[in-house]
Specification:
12 helices, alpha+beta, six-stranded antiparallel β-sheet, 381 residues
């Protein structure tokens, strides 16, 4: 190893040591985030959620919480000066209100007022606000409030000019939710707890969108500061894995030829330049009852063939349940391999020196004869 190689390895080691000191932070996804549609559909979903919670008669049991909180915000921001005369009688909420071929996202109508809300999650404000204003005037209410509800409150000068000319005022989700949080204490005891949970999930989803920082600032700072070194480390690791797979594949192909001869079966395969294997049993509409053998070389600092691990593998819960007791009777409790994914279960049978091809083939053959026997027994019962 050259002095240059040592210097590179020391640099990688330093990066890894720094990385290991960074605390792991994982934020749980909200339900809405898990179900999130492309942005335009998500905006429609948010409008429907708002319509549900703005309607005092709906089954959420939160009554006038949303409309009172919105009007508190309108008054606080001096959007409407005569807010104190507003009553909530005969409140009606309309989504996608028709306006000369266009649609206003949300309209709230009462005896005394009409509120038009253009809901903007991430899109630009390209909407025909003049047409919307005309439609809102047609309701003939004493008070008309026109709002643009947005997540980021980042409007261009043209958008601000358009709002100014049409009387629309900008408010943010965060401002609305802050007002709701101030008032919600009066409603929590009597509301439907299921819809209260949904409301908190809705609020958290929007607040996560507004979050101006990285979820893990320390981790982000690490990658920013060490981008060149991390890239070199990643490329070096990719090259190492590629070389390792080629070395393993060559030996696995040799073992495959030997075990095919020993078992008199040509069904052995090499998958992904990583596993040597075979499977027996049936896969049908009734279930996946295959059981297989998979073997892999495990490297160490001494070389790429330090040892050879052998596993019994099933690819479904049904297959695992079907064969686990028979494996236990023959071999005792076998340790599963971690992180196999999906329903695949790999139970470790044994490990051998990676350089002893005869011992490896003898053990593979013994395992093969066993799975041939138990799958034959299953087929006959």
């Amino acid at each position: 190893m050259t002095s240059s190689d040592i210097e590179i390895i020391n640099g990688f080691t330093s990066i890894l040591e720094e990385f290991s000191r960074i605390p792991t932070k994982n934020r749980d996804s909200t339900y809405l985030e898990l179900c999130q549609y492309p942005t335009r559909r998500f905006e429609e979903i948010c409008s429907r959620l708002l319509a549900f919670y703005f309607d005092p008669q709906r089954e959420h049991g939160l009554g006038e919480l949303f409309i009172r909180s919105l009007l508190d915000l309108v008054e606080e921001q001096k959007i409407e000066k005569d807010i104190q005369i507003i009553e909530f009688s005969n409140l009606r909420v309309v989504t996608e209100d028709f306006a000369d071929g266009k649609r206003i996202d949300l309209v709230i109508i009462s005896d005394d007022f009409v509120i038009g809300i253009e809901n903007k999650i991430t899109a630009s404000l390209y909407n025909p606000l003049r047409i919307y204003s005309k439609r809102l005037r047609e309701y003939g209410k004493q008070i008309t409030i026109k709002l643009v509800l947005s997540v980021f409150n980042a409007f261009s000068q043209d958008e601000l000019t358009l709002m100014g000319e049409t009387g629309f005022k900008p408010i943010t989700y965060i401002d609305l939710f802050t007002s709701i949080k101030i008032n919600i204490g009066d409603y929590i005891a009597t509301c439907n707890q299921k819809y209260l949970t949904h409301l908190y999930d809705f609020i958290a989803t929007i607040e996560n969108m507004k979050q101006p920082h990285f979820a893990n600032p320390e981790m982000a700072g690490f990658f920013i500061d060490n981008e060149e070194g991390v890239t070199r480390l990643k490329n070096a690791h990719d090259n190492y894995i590629k070389e390792l797979r080629e070395l393993h594949d060559s030996r696995l192909q040799d073992l495959r030829t030997e075990i095919q001869t020993k078992t008199k079966c040509q069904d052995w395969w090499v998958w992904g330049k990583k596993y040597l294997g075979i499977s027996k049993g049936e896969q049908s509409d009734a279930g996946d009852y295959r059981i297989g053998i998979e073997g892999e070389f495990v490297p160490s600092k001494d070389g790429p063939y330090n040892r050879f691990d052998i596993y019994f593998t099933t690819w479904s819960k049904g297959g695992d349940d079907h064969y686990r007791s028979k494996l236990r009777i023959k071999y005792g409790e076998l340790k599963p391999k971690n992180n196999t994914g999906d329903c695949k279960v790999m139970l470790k049978k044994s490990s051998f020196s990676g350089g002893d091809a005869i011992e490896i083939c003898d053990e593979l053959n013994e395992c093969y004869q066993f799975i041939v026997g138990i799958t034959a027994d299953s087929s006959s019962t």
